Amino acid sequence: MQEVLKHLEAHFQAYLAELAEFVRIPSVSTDPAYAAEVAKAAHWVAQRLRRSGVPEVEILETPGHPVVYGAWETDPRRPTLLIYGHYDVQPPDPLERWQTPPFAPAIREVSGEQRLYARGVSDDKGPMLIPLLVTEAFQAVKGAPPINLKFLLEGEEEVGSRHLEAVVQAQLQRLKADFVLSADGAMWRPGVSSLNLSARGLVSLEFSLIGPSKDLHSGRHGGAILNPLVAMARLIASLHEASGRVAVEGFYDRVCEASPGERAAIQALPWEDGAYLAEIGAQGVYGEPGYSTLERQWIRPTLEVNGLWGGYTGPGGKTVIPSRAQAKLSCRLVPEQNPDEVRERLIQHLHRHCPPSMRLEIQAEPHGARPYALPSDHVGLRVARAVLRETEGQKPLEVRMGGTLPIANTFKEYLGLDTVFFSFSTGDEDFHAPNEFFRLERFRLGLEAWARYWWRLAHLEGLET
Amino acid sequence: MQEVLKHLEAHFQAYLAELAEFVRIPSVSTDPAYAAEVAKAAHWVAQRLRRSGVPEVEILETPGHPVVYGAWETDPRRPTLLIYGHYDVQPPDPLERWQTPPFAPAIREVSGEQRLYARGVSDDKGPMLIPLLVTEAFQAVKGAPPINLKFLLEGEEEVGSRHLEAVVQAQLQRLKADFVLSADGAMWRPGVSSLNLSARGLVSLEFSLIGPSKDLHSGRHGGAILNPLVAMARLIASLHEASGRVAVEGFYDRVCEASPGERAAIQALPWEDGAYLAEIGAQGVYGEPGYSTLERQWIRPTLEVNGLWGGYTGPGGKTVIPSRAQAKLSCRLVPEQNPDEVRERLIQHLHRHCPPSMRLEIQAEPHGARPYALPSDHVGLRVARAVLRETEGQKPLEVRMGGTLPIANTFKEYLGLDTVFFSFSTGDEDFHAPNEFFRLERFRLGLEAWARYWWRLAHLEGLET
């Protein structure tokens, strides 16, 4: 193992040069003008897998951008990891806010640390390249990695992984593994590694309240009929209690309360409401009584209004009573809430609270996302904890995600696999913004940690839980 | 007097031809492409006044379209009327929905009545032409009208009478009169004349609630802060009681309750909620308890939401907690409510109900409109009642307006004059829509009624009140 680490160390500058070469390819998945560049990046990735010794490499075409698949089955008695990452990147706009061009990687020292600046370097090309390089190191030193590896590296993560589900469904046999190790999914804070235990699910709903069949003059008709905007305001107001708790009947029915241990772990994390409020520019925290801010974001379900509109919204005034008021809602879900059931509860609530003079029209999105959670003693987490304690000299933070992890749901649903997120990018690295960067030290640490991870997984004895 | 009526009768076909000539001029005030046509219409009106014998005729230029002024002071001991009307018209779009071209007047028989179809024929060229023709008849038969006349005929009514206030302010002396008789302002229903006793005032306000300083991802932040859209919904919901009564403290303080007689008069009008709901396509009436629909529209104040918006309003979903929610409100006011005071009450309410974590930003429109009401025994109304009883054999309906009459406020504020509305167009004549028409019988009736009006005003004795 020491030899592998030495090999990684010795080749660090070469790896950095390779990462620079990788990020020079503007593989912007959302813009058709870059389609050839996305294809080029897929070929680059496939080539890199082959050079790392991966014997089975295939570019799986989709109606969109391809998925690069690789497999190196070394020993059927050893564990098998399915490694996930993506080679596509966000658009670089606004270009004028970049200090150096987005596809001309540049190393700069900022805040005492070396950073590589380029679009996609943190999300996800840097983190994604790590397992490919670690494979090469094992091949060079040991002839092969210590476990079985499968790679699923997609080119559409930044456009909602449009065709990933279809690819997974079509490749059920080839994707068999013990669990997924994801090179995507940034760590929580700079300076300390973290492991993500859960993500919330999602269900969305749009609805309209329709009063009169056409817009009316509010002079002539004002006072005589219920204004759909007032009806909408009341309906939205009925969704929560004043305290902040969701007032939809049955909303919390299946919510699995966090254990005292889980709550204590969240309580122990470094967090200050004051600093949080300063970051988002808000005046106060607010939410379900009895829970801290992190608990409200991570382990409690929520119902948010994402859009609300009706009537005249342009400059100046217009004396109108609109025919219709509209709203978009979404709920974040926690185990064991079910998106379909929550959607039903929500619709029932809207019907129950819709005034008799209003017609309710509901456009529910057919697909919700289930909440995702890893058991705290999942072997993939135990390995990760041990590795990070070893590389960083301290226990990683155990965090959760308020948002949704669609790929974790996809792998769970079709392959029955849990996903352990083991990216070495950090949430502050301006991915999706100008001047995206990746910390060189995290790149180095990632190479070491992934090598140790595979080694430990291959030799599971003695893992602390 | 009979000779004047005979003269009007005898010249009816000629007058009709004149009206047709007048509506051939496309005096669309809102579209700069028609500016020359608007000027042409002003000259046509000035010429018509001169031909009717009006000795003092002047085209008053404004930064927009001109006002045509005329004066015929016959006897300082007689009453003086200021006659108001407008010679500009709405745009004719959509052209394809006109059965005959908008500026090519055509007579058609519909529902057993003769109608003249053309843009502006009902609003307001037909009604406006009446006093000019009646002046001519008096001149022809008697040498002069029986009262003193002043004319103020504007070319910007359809664009909000932009420069009328300035003209009135500049002409205070020349506009001195006993009251205003308006040739604009349609009657309520076809088949029976009506007199308008009041119009509601108006005050408008726009405001924002601002939470975080930028839009936030509702996955990461959902549940942890108060969503501005939820705060807005609650604030809007707080403006009314569930019953429909306005909940703003002090809102009703100065409201002058209608007398039992006034309420009985409204109660006696032909009205069915069912027919009203069918007309507007709504499911039910709703409003301040204890009042009928017409009372809610005419003699009770109201607070309406004219616009409400925030967050993502495009197609599909976006998981956002917006930084800001916005709303536009307007109140209709009744005597003796004061727009400035109501605005203050409203602002106080918003501040009082704004949650501590939200910042309230108010953009109040500086100008409100006062409510307008004529005393029921106003001499101008008494004359009108007597004339209409005589010409139609029945008492006119006494109605009110839910909307605002800016010109009545202008004349009241600057000249201290009440305005009696005595138009012979009807609310169903599709002004502001394709196929605008004016009923020939109402044109004939208008000529007779205006002649009788002036005659009666000149000989006030024996008027029933």
UniProtKB/TrEMBL annotation, chains A, B:
Gene3D superfamilies: 3.30.70.360, Zn peptidases (3.40.630.10). Residues 202-356 form the Peptidase M20 dimerisation domain. One of its GO terms (biological process) is proteolysis. One of its GO terms (molecular function) is peptidase activity. Its EC number is 3.5.1.18. Keywords: Hydrolase, Metal-binding, Protease. The keyword Membrane does not apply. The keyword Protease applies. PANTHER family: BETA-ALA-HIS DIPEPTIDASE, SUCCINYL-DIAMINOPIMELATE DESUCCINYLASE. This is Succinyl-diaminopimelate desuccinylase. The lineage of its organism: Bacteria, Thermotogati, Deinococcota, Deinococci, Thermales. The gene is dapE_3.
